[in-house]
Amino acid sequence: MPFLAAITVYLHFDDNGSLKGKRKELVSLRSVLNRRFGAAVAEVDHHDLWQRSTLVLALVGSSHTDLDHLVDGVERYLLSRHPESVRIERRLVSFEDLS
Question: I need a labelling partner for 85 at 20 to 30 A (CA). Which of 12, 23, 35, 45 fits?
Answer without folding.
Answer: 35
